[in-house]
Amino acid sequence: MKLSYFPGCTLKNHAKNFEDSALCSLKSLDVEVEEIRRWNCCGTVFSLTSDDLIHHVAPVRNLIRAKEAGSDKLMTLCAMCYNTLKRSNERVRSNPEDLDIINDLMYREDIDYEGDVDVVHLLEILKNEIKFENIAKKTVKSLKGLKVASYYGCYLVRPREIGFDDVENPMIMDELMTTLGAEAIDFPHKVECCGAYQTVDKPEIIADRTNQILSSAIKQGAEVVIVSCPLCAFNLDQRQKKTQQKFPEFKNIPILYFSQLLAISLGCPQDSLRLDLHYIDPTAILKEKGLI
Amino acid sequence: MRTNISRHKIRSPFVAKVEELSGQNLLACYQCGKCSAGCPAVSQMDILPNQIIRFAQLGLKEELLKSNSIWICASCMTCNVRCPKGINIAEAIEAVRQILLRKREDHVNVEELSDSERGDVPPIALISNFRKFTS
Known about the structure:
The structure holds two protein chains of two kinds. By secondary structure, chain A is of the alpha/beta class. Chain A has helices spanning 16-28, 57-68, 79-94, 96-105, 122-130, 132-138, 172-179, 198-201, 203-219, 230-238, 240-246, 258-265, 283-288; strands at residues 2-6, 32-35, 73-76, 118-121, 147-150, 183-185, 224-227, 255-257. Chain A has two domains: 2-122, Glutathione S-transferase Yfyf (Class Pi), Chain A, domain 2 (Up-down Bundle); 135-288, Rossmann fold. Chain B is an all-alpha fold. Chain B has helices at residues 7-10, 13-22, 34-38, 49-57, 61-65, 69-72, 78-82, 89-101, 115-119, 123-133. Chain B is globular, with a radius of gyration of 16 Å. Chain B starts with 6 loop residues before the first helix and ends with a helix. The chains are: A alpha/beta, B mainly alpha. The A-B interface holds A 8-10, 13-15, 41, 43-45, 48-52, 55, 78, 80, 154, 158-160, 167-168, 191-193, 195-202, 205, 208-209, 230-231, 234, 238 and B 20-23, 40-41, 43-44, 72, 74-78, 80-81, 88, 90-91, 94-95, 98, 107-108, 113, 117-118, 120-129, 131-133.
């Protein structure tokens, strides 16, 4: 299998642990991944106003890049990229007049976009194309004994027509963790917003949310929390510093990308995990479980 | 709160603009309050999401434009997926934000952010923050 891949703005820096572990996992699963050439930032958020077509140019341009690579499918890892690219794609597919205007705005491109590229998330590829039972056959290390809470946040599941799982109770990451031998921990805050970009100018809001979300996961017995969004990862991991200052009784918990646990399971080298990029160091718990 | 309601306010260009930008029929809302019940941000808001819709129905322009709620909402879409009337509340809130931003009334001033506010956060945070809070 060969896939076109869109990394987005944060996968090459703060979320290098996400990218490296995901790409190593896909290699172990015999999937050939090709990063699209000349990709640009998707804009990170889908424009919600009816007349604002200019902000759909950036996501649609990336779909042209996928087409140029001969692909009818573009894979993302970041939940925000997934949401933005897919929603813009659906908007132009259902509004041909908007698509004409957007193509006109990109008159210097060699080809037009015609709604002919599908946007998919890595989790969908793992579940629907590679299939979890085939992943299980390729694992070399079981996550047995590790209690993992899956935090989905907003953009993998909402709005309903874009998300690839139940809006209130998604299970795809829980199922993946069970496949890898871990114990999936259910908790009531798995789709509750972390505060997202408020982290720049109102970090105290993030401290409140991080306290609520992570304390709830810890209460259910989680030892680590997994995510699929670099902004959730930043808010839930790095903002634990601020959370600790605001709530002295708050207990720390390591945040991992689901792909890092997948990479461990598939026998990827430890340097692909980039554990140096975490604020709360997951090394101790991973060592305790014999995973690194 | 004491409020003056008038036909003039309800049929004002402001209400029409919110409906146009959001693509929502504001009068479809029957004030069940489910959006506010599930909103993770209500504790920081001065006007709750269902009240934002009510204020918009009544054309209470000034109250909406000066509320902090429009800057607290992070468009997480929880209200949208739960609304029994299919109203996209997040889009209505975006419309009010946009009415201010399109007059260059930015909520975040990039030059005023400290080095640590700018430097410590990943690009995804900065880009989404500026997309939502600046013109």
